[in-house]
Design goal:
Blueprint (H helix, E strand, L loop, with lengths): L1 E3 L24 E3 L8 H12 L7 H26 L18 H19 L6 H18 L4 H20 L10 E5 L5 H10 L2 E6 L2 H13 L6 E5 L12 E7 L8 H11 E14 L11 H14 L7 H10 L3 E7 L1 H4 L2 H10 L1 H10 L1 H8 L1 H9 L3 E9 L3
Parallel strand pairs: 3-4, 3-6, 4-5, 6-7
Antiparallel strand pairs: 1-2, 7-9, 8-9
The protein binds S-adenosylmethionine.
């Protein structure tokens, strides 16, 4: 059993309601590790099946899929950014957390997702004071928008100075911080800009959507990060990078789009430098039981509807990912089901889509985005029925 304690909330969460004086410490939480109960024979069959989600997918279908993904994100990224900001991924919440309807809380939960993923993988925390600089930047951006009072502002600055005292006590080894990061399936580059600021790392993001790549570059330039974060259109399954280039390989909610999971993880491992950390955060279907060969027909039907709207190929399980990583001799493989931590996310997305701004933006954005919005309840139902799993899988490339 793996014990996992999510980090305390990032300080930027706190000023929305109260001055950020002492972040609450969440209780110890237990997360199931992936249980690999299968026999060697059925393992081999499943790895092969997971590896070749393409076996039933022709080259033409792969081409159509990539085109559909590019168009979906070309159309929908502007709407998403308008309402949700930089990050196109789930937020991370405490299971017992009462989540307000505030968009700022959800954005903070999305940043927390990045922090929790780094922590789970054992990537060093980076400069805390740099993180505070981000918070200040975000605070400055948000404060006018949310009409934050002078008293709250004063509390915030007081907390900032007390927090900075802690920073000087931080003894972390700077050599262990990532220096070169690839952001595979980068969206509009939110993770890369965060990692560039946090670690001072050089980040390169790839996406299938030209509009996302342009927007990501524009945002990096606007935030003074053009030297640190750059973005291009490229396929994760044929990355335009030499072997062994990156010490952090980051894939935040892009794996579900990959039609060939073996090729996907093989590319992640290829571009990873010896000793690099690989982090995959992705949608999976539930692990199959020892006597099961495949999902139930109703489960397949449920996922098919989601696949059609979001341009996803066949899904695989967390156990399939673990087996693929094992087959590539990667080390320190860890996996967890984070479904309970993301539960408030889709209801919030639906609420935002039903707001006046959401409805008008959706109507302007095109059919693909509208189709995506219509299947959102299926995501919630899939989680509730234990069919859909929000998974994190991490490992290290041997030295
Ligand atoms: C849900 S978005 C996640 C974006 C980003 N990681 C984030 O957290 O904000 C999925 C991303 O995966 C990208 N993607 C999907 N298939 C891809 C592929 N074969 N090669 C490169 N990017 C891909 C999409 O273009 C999109 O940017």
């Amino acid at each position: 059993m793996l014990l996992y304690q999510p980090c305390s909330r990032p300080p930027q969460l706190l000023f929305h309601n109260n001055p950020p004086l002492s972040p609450p410490t969440p209780p110890l939480l237990r997360i199931r590790t992936t249980r690999l109960l299968h026999s060697r024979a059925s393992r081999a069959t499943r790895v092969a099946a997971a590896a070749s989600s393409t076996s039933s997918t022709t080259a033409m279908e792969v081409g159509e899929l990539k085109k559909g993904i590019a168009e979906l994100y070309d159309q929908s990224s502007g709407v998403w950014e308008d309402i949700w900001g930089d990050h196109m991924h789930h937020g991370f919440y405490d299971p017992d957390e009462t989540v307000s309807g505030s968009g700022a809380d959800h954005r903070a939960a999305q940043i927390r997702m990045i922090q929790e993923a780094l922590r789970f993988a054992g990537v060093p925390g980076g400069f805390k004071n740099l993180e505070m600089v981000i918070s200040i930047y975000e605070f400055e951006t948000f404060k006018d928008k949310f009409h934050i009072s002078n008293t709250v502002q004063a509390g915030y600055w007081a907390a900032f100075f007390s927090y900075n005292v802690e920073v000087h006590l931080d003894t972390e080894d700077p050599d262990k911080r990532p220096k070169n990061v690839v952001d595979v399936g980068c969206g509009i580059g939110g993770s890369s800009r965060y990692l560039a600021r946090k670690y001072g790392a050089k980040c390169v993001g790839i996406t299938l959507s030209p509009i996302q790549a342009d927007r990501a570059n524009a945002l990096a330039a606007a935030e003074g990060l053009a030297e640190k974060a750059s973005f291009q259109v490229a396929d994760a399954l044929e990355q335009p990078f030499p072997d062994g280039q990156f010490d952090l390989v980051w894939s935040m909610e892009s794996g579900e789009h990959m039609p060939d999971k073996r090729k996907f993880v093989t590319e992640l491992a290829r571009v990873a430098a010896p000793g690099a950390t690989i982090i995959i955060v992705t949608w999976c279907h539930r692990d199959l039981g020892p006597s099961e060969k495949s999902l139930q027909p109703w489960e397949k039907e449920h996922l098919k509807k989601i696949c059609n709207a979001y341009y996803l190929p066949e899904w695989c399980s967390t156990a399939d990912y673990v087996q693929l990583l094992e087959s590539l001799s990667l080390e320190d493989i860890k996996a967890a089901d984070w479904s309970q931590y993301v539960a408030p996310f889709w209801p919030a997305v639906i609420r935002s889509a039903l707001s006046w701004k959401g409805i008008t933006s959706l109507l302007r954005s095109g059919l693909k985005t509208i189709r995506g919005a219509l299947v959102m309840p299926l995501m919630i139902e899939g989680y509730k029925k234990d069919l859909i799993k929000f998974a994190i899988i991490t490992c290290r490339k041997p030295e």
